Amino acid sequence: MALTAPQPEHLDLKGPLDFNDSPLSRAAKQPLMLGLFLNLQDIRFSSVPTSNSWTFDYNAELVKRADELGFEIAFSRTQWLPKGGYDGESSLDSFIALGAMAAITKNILLISTIHVLYGPLHPLHLAKYGATLDHIAKGRWGINIVTGHRAIEHEMFGWQRIEHDKRYDMASELFDVLHRLWSETENFSHEGKLNPWAVNNGWITPKPLYGRPPLVTATGSPAGFDFAARHSDLVFVTSPGGAHIDSALETLPDHITVLKNRAASYGRQVKTVINPMVIARDTEKEALAFADAIEAGKPQPGTRAFGNSASPYDSDAHAWRGRSDPSHKQGRNLGSNIEIIGSPEQVVEKLVGLKKAGIDGVQLNFYDFREDLDYFADRILPLMKEAGLRL
Length: 391
Hints:
The protein is built from 11 helices and 12 strands. The protein is α/β, with parallel strands linked by helices. It has a single domain (11-386), classed as TIM Barrel, CATH 3.20.20. The strands form 3 sheets. The chain has an 8-stranded parallel barrel, surrounded by 4 helices. Strands 5-6 form a two-stranded antiparallel ribbon. Helix 8 (245-265) runs parallel beside helix 10 (344-357) and helix 10 (344-357) crosses helix 11. The longest helix has 21 residues, at 245-265. It is globular, with a radius of gyration of 20 Å. The model is unreliable at 1-12 (pLDDT under 50).
């Protein structure tokens, strides 16, 4: 039987968290949501061998496995870099790849990273594409909103890099229009004030099933927090204290409080997610030894490899500022926002700490995705249930 979009009052103000039966609302009932942070790029972070692959088939199998395990979310970064900008030469587009996974999964939310200002992508296109994928995935497809922080990416599309806060103003106008297109019952027109496009008698049907697709923003700046508080359901936060888990647990509570209070000022709620690299072995000694081996195999400074701590491409991302605070342990820089290294019991202890700090979900990164996901399922997931982190 075909699904029809619910019709609550003021649909243009509704998001999927306002519908108790939406896939996002069901996911948010977990004490700690579990996500998988895919690498759809040819990333060679260290010389230590892995099974990892940028290919669709490899990543699709990971997402199907995560879906079977009860994970709630999957998404990946997307980057626009010139030749030589990746460790290898291959990088799939997250918009297409995650959307395609709707046909082979049942419950997991599929979040496509989209640089919403590049091109520009016209709101009618994005609204129509989004509504179509929303129906294919039955409310499980969403957008990770990226405004772009590397000058070289803007330049690839014929732009000069847009000033940081102005990017969020432009994105806010775009998503105000998208909300209208996804909810209006009559044709809708809008003349872009900050963006170089207009909508004249725009109309999108079918409407999304739960007001609009789930929206995610990764940010840490005041302008980004304000945008996320107005528009997003999930906010991908960084640790102000650095990658070391103890520093993260110390600095995250105040950071998250600012964000959630900002959302409350708009009469909204947001859920926070963070991206830990989990390196787990049967003992702490084994886990630390493996982490040390990964770090020892990182590429030399001065190359463009992903494993370098300093990007060769000019970035004005604010979320990572302040992470060099010498008063905090800085971690190993193993490719994620924070690092959790230890035995299964120690990993769960730190996940409990993240929950207490205000984190609602973790987007897990693994050094060897296939092998480490299986280990997580066998050794860590049962302990998470015992600790009350999973229903």
